[in-house]
């Protein structure tokens, strides 16, 4: 007998998993141009609709997750993703405003430094040079759970300037600003 998830009345995540109803994909640009499927950005945000044994998120929270995380499932015609709680990057407390993201666990939200647009001699650069790997800490998560069960808060204060590993984290753009969410272990140094 072949069954699909639409044949069932509910999905109850087990263990440390959460079920997230994925936001709808944008099929058009802000200017109204219809995008082909291959050009559409796949959403990496949605609302938590069911919980397993988790502590950091609640049902109804709007969360952001890594685009490579979880298992995609269709339930009653809607796209969902089944994630480990650790794959949830943060909770969006205020609409889609990434600057207001509340990082989870040992994650840190950093506003990236702007790349220089011209050389020291004043020549404008037309190609994107290496992106800076430093920025200002905007928010920190509650911390990572130690083996004894106690939560160890990140040792990075909000407002500090930090350098982070080049290929770490998850990047977000909001207008002209770029943000990255990294784990505390990916922070190489605090800059003074």
**Major sheet description:** 7 strands, antiparallel
CATH superfamily of the largest domain: GroES chaperonin
Shape: globular
State the helix count. 0
Approximately what portion of the residues adopt beta-strand conformation?
Answer: 35-45%
Give the % helix: under 10%
CATH topology of the largest domain, by name, is: 10 Kd Chaperonin, Protein Cpn10, Chain O
- Taking Cα atoms only, what radius of gyration do you get, to the nearest Å? 19 Å
CATH class category of the largest domain? Mainly Beta
In whole angstroms, the N-to-C terminal distance is: 64 Å
Protein name: 20 kDa chaperonin, chloroplastic
Family: Belongs to the GroES chaperonin family.
Keywords: Chaperone
GO molecular function: ATP binding; metal ion binding; protein folding chaperone; protein-folding chaperone binding; unfolded protein binding
Structure explained in plain terms:
- By secondary structure, the chain is an all-beta fold.
- The chain has two domains: 11-92, GroES chaperonin (10 Kd Chaperonin, Protein Cpn10, Chain O); 105-192, 10 Kd Chaperonin, Protein Cpn10, Chain O.
- The chain has strands at residues 17-22, 45-51, 62-65, 71-75, 78-84, 88-92, 101-103, 107-112, 134-140, 144-145, 151-152, 161-164, 170-174, 177-183, 187-191.
- The protein has a seven-stranded antiparallel sheet, with no helix packed on it. It has a six-stranded antiparallel sheet with strand order 13-14-8-9-12-15, with no helix packed on it.
- A hairpin with a 2-residue loop joins strand 4 and strand 5.
- The protein starts with 16 loop residues before the first strand and ends with a strand.
- Belongs to the GroES chaperonin family.
């Amino acid at each position: 007998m072949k069954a699909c998830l639409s044949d069932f009345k509910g999905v109850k995540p087990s263990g440390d998993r959460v079920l997230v109803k994925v936001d709808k994909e944008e099929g058009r640009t802000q200017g109204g141009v219809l995008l082909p499927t291959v050009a559409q950005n796949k959403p990496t945000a949605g609302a938590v609709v069911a919980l397993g044994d988790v502590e950091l998120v609640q049902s109804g929270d709007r969360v952001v997750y890594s685009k490579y995380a979880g298992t995609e499932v269709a339930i009653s015609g809607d796209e969902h993703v089944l994630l480990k709680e650790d794959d949830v990057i943060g909770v969006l407390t205020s609409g889609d405003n990434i600057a207001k993201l509340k990082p989870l666990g040992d994650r840190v939200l950093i506003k990236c430094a702007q790349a220089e647009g011209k050389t020291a001699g004043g020549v404008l650069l037309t190609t994107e040079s290496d992106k800076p790997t430093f920025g200002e800490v905007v928010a920190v998560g509650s911390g990572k759970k130690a083996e004894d069960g106690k939560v160890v808060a990140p040792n990075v204060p909000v407002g500090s300037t930090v350098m982070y590993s080049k290929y770490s984290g998850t990047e977000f753009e909001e207008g002209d600003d770029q943000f990255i969410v990294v784990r505390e272990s990916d922070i190489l140094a605090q800059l003074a």
